[in-house]
Amino acid sequence: MNDLIKYLTLSDPNVRYVALAILLLGGVSGAVGTFNFLRKKTLIGETVAHSMLPGVLIAFMLSGVKNPLYLIIGAAVSGWISIWVVDYITRHSKIKGDSALAIVLSSFFGLGIVMLTIIQRVYIKEQSGLDNYIFGNAAAMTPEDSVVFGVVSLIVLFVVARYYFSLKTVVFNQDFAQSVGINTKWIETVIRFITIISISVGIKAVGIVMMSALLIIPPTAARFWTDSLGRMLFVSGVFGAVSGWLGAYISYSYSSMPTGPWTIVMISVIAFVSLMFAPKKGVIFQRWSKLLVKRRMNEENLLKTAVQLEVRGKGKLFNRRSISTRQVFDQRLWNRTIKRLRRKGMIKKVHTGYTLSTEGRAIGAEIDRRHKIWEVYLQRRMQMSLHLVHDEADTMEHFLTPEIEVEILKELGLCSRFNPLLEIHEIVPEGA
Amino acid sequence: MDAFWIIITGFLVASSTGMLGNLLLLRRMSMMGDALSHAVLPGIVIAYLISGSRASLPLFLGAIVMGVTTTLLIQFFSSKGKMQSDAAMGTVFTFLFAVGVILVTRFAGEADIDADCVLHGEIAFVPLQTSSFLGLNVPAPVWTLLVLLLLIQVIFWWGYKGWMITSFNNEYAQSIGIRTVLWHYSLMAATSVATVVSFESVGAILVIAFLVVPAASAYLITDNLKRMTLLIMLQGLISAALGYFIAEWVGGSISGSMAVASFLQFAACFAWFKVGAKKEG
Lengths: 432, 281
Prior knowledge:
A: 432 residues; ABC transporter involved in vitamin B12 uptake, BtuC; Arc Repressor Mutant, subunit A; B: mainly alpha; two-stranded antiparallel sheet; 12 helices; globular
């Protein structure tokens, strides 16, 4: 608890920079990743982050010092080249994006490994700490680093605000963007630019893989909560920032716990919770709504069949056996459906069987009516043969809304009081 | 003799992973090698902690289990959660890698293990592990990889029709009664086994490269499956040899050099493809 207070009040100067820097990094990469995610280039960050290794090492060899600024520039240049190569390969051959990413990743990183082994042999003393650019080391961050992160966040914020409309258009529909005169090439360059600067400053703090995770996971989680770009940018940024903050806290309060990996575990937990529990798009919600539809279909089928039996003069009393002559219900399904219908007051129990209430009869008749409307529509407009239309209509009857129904009746030239008792084979097809 | 065994090892890895890479390329899952190489880390660490030894069998089993778990998780995320498949892949493997790194740092004090040694097996050590068999002094990894190659070849030629049809048109395959999910999982399982076996002897980066690059280059040059297979093997041999000599020359990592060499070959094939395309049209 003491730790938490100390952490939250930032009274410990060591943690102040790390926490602030990781928070900014998480927020920025969450927002930047959103653009790549929506363009279905989610894994580009992984390739770019790996491809920065040779650039970092060349900058080190040229300058002979580990000045972060030189190394960041080196990283950015080689990251830029890697994106260019990926783009060139996909544009000028039949090789698809994913293969191009893997090809560039493995060759650039392979080159980096070759250079690293040479450097470790030649610059024995000066090289220590270079492997931070692979595995990351948040604890080694300095006040200057958090200033750098702050500047990068401002740049990204400015760029996104400046080009917001064009970015939005390009992300959702490239062709449309082109047709309304947006310079899509320039916008692509803008997306590349923000991707590269955020990765190049980030890898030293959290490492290559954790950096690409920060670009991948926050937008993936945010996508479950919203459909609008603006909100998604915000949610994704907040998810990234919050997990960075939590990661830094765990690393602060437990000894020898790395910041980067804990940040990723936190954001993964957020992503998993979103996947399961998000309203509308979450797995549980989807399961639940599917179940509800299924229940409604069973209820409606039962009511419809009872009405059909009544109309055909089979009496008002029905039970499982009489219903099952037209619509099969097994015992369990029957019991459950009956229970729900009784609770809703759609049917009543009458010693040996059940009868429809006025309400239940109205619904059953309505479903039957929609069934027949759809059958007629399929037969007349889709030219489907008689024996096929019934099964199709059995599903559609549950989903026809009154608005569609009106349209269909208009289209078929039938009056809105289309007789539900009319059997399909009594309708003479047009032109016959 | 060392050079010979190292080059043979590279060749064997390229030939077995390249065959699977061919299929991954068609399914747009080329980043699977990268994903698996990171995702198996927690499996290896947990196996190490349970068995308490660095013997390769438990670590291998841990990696295989984790590899299969990874593919199941990715499948769950993309089918049940309706995520884009690349986002599902990225989320799963980075999460597992993070867990692995946390485990490694947590137990680093008590255990002789680090992310570096697990992920970056070094091909240069292959000749050191010789074992005698039928009077031949052959390094143990070469035997393992030879068995792997034979296995992959058998599986590939047995199942390529199923994988082809499910890669090109999944819906169609489903509609004529092919169990597409089964095919998908069998390919993923084969990929997990092949990559994990190869990591151990040559390191992750070379596996990622050999899984994709030879297959992609062959794909540029020919559409004929048999020719593609031969080309993949040929490229594996050339990349391994060329990479070895580059490494000797500059004095750097052999695995890294082989990855770079295979890229150089890809570039050559690309140029060939471009020239051919220009002539035609």
